[in-house]
Amino acid sequence: AALLTSTRKRGTATYAQTLQNIPETQVTTLDNGLRVASEESSQPTCTVGLWIEAGSRYEDAKTNGAGFFMEHMAFKGTKKRPGSAFEKEVESLGAHLNGYTSREQTAFYIKALSKDMPKAVELLSDLVQNCALEDSQIEKERSIILQELKEMDSSLTDVTFDYLHATAYQGTALAHTVEGTTENIKRLTRADLASYIDTHFKAPRMVLAAAGGISHRELVDAAKQHFTGAPFTYKGDSMPALPRCRFTGSEIRARDDALPLAHIALAVEGPGWADPDNVVLNVANAIIGRYDRTFGGGKNQSSRLAALAVEHNLCHSFEPFNTSYSDTGLFGFHFVSDPLSVDDMMFCAQREWMRLCTSATESEVTRAKNWLRNAMVAQLDGTTRVCENIGSHLLHYGRCIPLEEWDARISAVDARMVRDVCSKYIYDKCPAIAAVGPIEQLLDYNRIRSAMYWVRF
Question: For residue 45, which of 1, 100, 191, 295 sits 20 to 30 Å off, Cα-Cα?
């Protein structure tokens, strides 16, 4: 009994100590505007990455897909390391190189031994300023990307969310897909890709982040050595402005009765990254919970919507989301259901939204906050996730917010805050809807809109 008590006390203390003992994020801004940030630890490995304020939101209708194309080309050799020489050098370090492109940011990162950090910085610098863009490689990657686009069309979840952005932000840059259109991929040229790099891959839009067994001073020295000079500096011109995007309550329906399941996404406009309401909305999403038929627990799950889904066989899965951008966001839920369950699932999900606006309780808020804390601490697993947090935070918030501060923000949320903030963003708002598959049972938009409020007598 004494041993168990000791173990419990140690576990309780460990959570508080973990928040307090996380290494401080050190940030240095170079003369050219490049931000260099790191968290030092005793790990034998490190992750070094470059986070760039560039993505499909910065593209127009003709260049949409250039950033995704560039991501593919980045790994196909540089002027200093042509062909497969770049890949071989990465492999000789036993390192792992990866990257991704989203609507507002592009990232390239390397996980390697801590002693190889300077070499990783050099490789990242070479990758973004000396990409070879050989014509033969461009044509080869063009074929690969076109094949990827066909495969992406088979992922109905991805298709649904692309449709959701297209209808919610119609006529603006956020309506673009990250991957671009088939027509654009077929006609993008070497000059288009070179122009994209020259416009966006500049020091003031970049964060060089690192986490693991590295020295911040050494990281800054490596950055000064490899991230200076003309390619990373604006030559008198101003930085490209962030294109404005406006949310529109509307819908896209792509009915196909040959498909077995319906995919439905419904969202209202949410806040941007830096808005403090995001913490409250994340608590609200944790109250709604998530469900998949492969989960255990059945109707005894703490999520009311999950319990209803199990008891009445409403859906195969559902998941809430809070997707934030610089100045706007999408707050909503996505579910997959049988054709004859669409109406019932939509009714129950919208009713749960209304309950959050009017009747959220302290007990479920407490449970949701504990779930968020668990998810927050899970971010500490591995240097790659820590490095990504550093880079993304500096782009989104202008600083790296420590977990102790996040914990304080979560702790401050109570049921009244959840009701007030949910009412602000959900109650009597026009939603954006995207639906794909056998969706005959999805009610008219006006009927769905009328369920965004309760008439009580």
Answer: 100
The CA distance from 87 to 344, in Å, is: 52
Q: Residue 71 catalytic?
A: yes
Which residue, among 366, 378, 385, 191, has the nearest Cα to 286 in the 3D structure?
366
**Which is the catalytic residue, given 40, 59, 71, 179?**
71
Give me the helices (H) in 255-382, please: 277-288, 304-312, 342-359, 362-378
Give which of 132, 47, 46 is closest to 86, Cα–Cα: 132
Do 24-228 and 251-451 agree at the fold level?
yes
Give rounded-to-5 percent helix, strand, coil for the chain. 50, 20, 35
CATH of domain 24-228: 3.30.830.10
What pLDDT, in 10s, does the model give residues 386-415?
Answer: 999 999 999 999 999 988 899 999 999 999
Q: Which amino acid is at 135?
A: D
Extents of the domains making up the chain: 24-228, 251-451
- Give the helix/strand (H/E) hosting 19: helix 2-20
Residue 252: pLDDT over 50: yes
Hey, CA dihedral for 269, 275, 280, 285, is it positive or negative? Answer: positive
Q: What is the pLDDT of residue 8?
A: 43
The domain at 251-451 falls in which architecture? 2-Layer Sandwich (3.30)
pLDDT digits (tens, 9 = 90+) for 48-104: 999 999 999 999 999 999 999 999 999 888 988 887 888 889 999 999 999 999 999
Predicted structure pTM score: 0.91
Using the Cα atoms of residue 175, residue 178, residue 183 and residue 188 in order, give the sign of their dihedral: positive
Identify the CA nearest to 390 among candidates 207, 226, 222: 207
Task: Round the average pLDDT of the chain to a whole number and report it.
Answer: 90
